[in-house]
Amino acid sequence: MKGSTKLVKSSLAARRPRLPQCSHTVVPIHLAAPLVSAFYHPSRRRNQSSWAAVFSAAQHVFNNAPDPKSPIAVDPFQTVAKEMKFLTENIRQLLGSGHPTLDTVAKYYTQSEGKYVRPMLVLLMSRATALTPKRCRQNNIQKAESMDQPISPSDILSDENPSAPGYSPLTSIANDAAYGREDSEILPSQRRLAEITELIHTASLLHDDVIDHSQARRSAPSANIAFGNKMAVLAGDFLLGRASVALARLRDPEVTELLATVIANLVEGEFMQLKNTARDEQNPLWTEDTVTYYLQKTYLKSASLISKSCRAAALLGQSKPEVVEAAYAYGKNLGLAFQLVDDMLDYTVSGEELGKPAGADLELGLATAPLLFAWKDNKDLGALVGRKFSKKGDVQKARELVAQSSGLEQTRALAQEYVSKAIEAISAFPESDAKNGLIEMCTKVMKRRK
């Protein structure tokens, strides 16, 4: 990745003033450096001495982090406000179904205000890379009218039972035309990508809430509670189906491959989450592989969608390979930081503030970053991890042991390190409000409370 970053820098150096780092809640890259080599590749095996250095560096980063109350320089939402304004409406239109119950369940999570982090990142990346060097790619159709046109014959896509005259197809292609000709630096295909990203994310929420027996989502009853498990699963499947149709109509094989891989990654990550360690033993001992396994699971479940959608945005914008790689690195690192902060909030923020039950991870038997860091110094946590906190009092004991440890501090330090890597990845992009918005998203991730 360093080589590709240098290529971007050399091609844009004449156009790019150096971005001041002081106004953002991020870790200076010189403080993050000791962590970079150890954590940048989650699947890489490490020896015990390297992990000792990582934990020491994490504490150093935490102690030297900037003030998290520094002022916000740019509002990322305002940078892409025009496109975000129609996001929910367009998603609901893409999800239209003639079956009233399916229509209601599929649109259930669009009724409440979501964070829309993933589509906002796609739109910001699209605008930020619009100023970077371009290349010509084949199979990339950018016209809105082409994007909304079916590939197969319409009467095949909306076929009906020939023995039932007057039958109306449940999913009409009329639901697919969501764009006018608004003037925007962001291409219609990139805007549709943002919507597809949110569809995939929402589908994963519907499925996760069933698996986790969730009670609340976005300060309302979760879909599995409101409609039952079967309806929630089927609605999630429908969202993935509609996302796949919209994805195919972008007519870009590489982008289709990327987002299809995300869907597979989500399932792979969920399977990894069924175990807290690779071997899932009854009395596990902490090793460097414990955190490696967790980070790989975290990438698959949380960061894959962000990293691959940022990459896809750059591809659709005809960006050069080094820019595409930089977009991917930004998304990968920010996605990992986002989930690390999420894991930390499960220990530190109330359920009312989160909009969902706090402490849910331990109740589900999941050992996340704060506990894994605490476990390294407190071997007693191993027995609790092995039985997935199933005995009475296990959850409370685990929370107390984490609170007494440096687990939360080290989790925040690692998240800040990933944030620094995300900012470094796009440092060579031309200066713009969109680039500053991407940087400010890093600040928001570190400051968020829900």
What are the defining features of this structure?
Farnesyl Diphosphate Synthase, 23 helices, 450 residues
Secondary structure blueprint with pairings:
Layout lengths: L1 H11 L16 H11 L8 H16 L12 H4 L1 H4 L2 H8 L5 H7 L10 H12 L15 H4 L6 H4 L30 H24 L4 E2 L2 E2 L1 H5 L1 H20 L4 H21 L14 H29 L4 H28 L2 H4 L5 H4 L5 H9 L3 H6 L7 H11 L2 H19 L7 H15 L3
Antiparallel strand pairs: 1-2
Helix pairs in contact: 1-16, 2-3, 2-22, 3-22, 6-11, 7-13, 8-11, 8-15, 8-23, 11-13, 11-14, 11-15, 13-14, 14-15, 15-16, 16-22, 19-21, 19-22, 22-23
Protein name: Decaprenyl-diphosphate synthase subunit 1
Organism: Cenococcum geophilum 1.58
Structure description:
This is Decaprenyl-diphosphate synthase subunit 1. By secondary structure, the protein is an all-alpha fold. The protein has 23 helices and two strands. The protein has a two-stranded antiparallel ribbon. A hairpin with a 2-residue loop joins β1 and β2. α15 packs across α16. The N terminus is likely disordered.
Give a quick precis of the structure.
This protein has 23 helices and 2 strands. The chain has helices spanning 2-12, 29-39, 48-63, 76-79, 81-84, 87-94, 100-106, 117-128, 144-147, 154-157, 188-211, 223-227, 229-248, 253-273, 288-316, 321-348, 351-354, 360-363, 369-377, 381-386, 394-404, 407-425, 433-447, and strands spanning 216-217, 220-221.
CATH classification, class level: Mainly Alpha
Low-confidence stretches: 1-72
The quaternary organization reads as: single chain
The name of the CATH superfamily reads Farnesyl Diphosphate Synthase
Q: Tell me the number of strands.
A: 2
- The outline comes out as globular
Radius of gyration: 22 Å
- The percent range for strand residues is under 5%
Please work out how many helical segments DSSP would assign.
Answer: 23
Strand line-up of the largest beta sheet = 1-2
Number of domains: 1
Q: Do you know the CATH topology?
A: Farnesyl Diphosphate Synthase
Give helix % range.
Answer: 55-70%
Largest sheet: 2 strands, antiparallel
By secondary-structure content and strand pairing, the structural class works out as: mainly alpha
Protein name: Decaprenyl-diphosphate synthase subunit 1
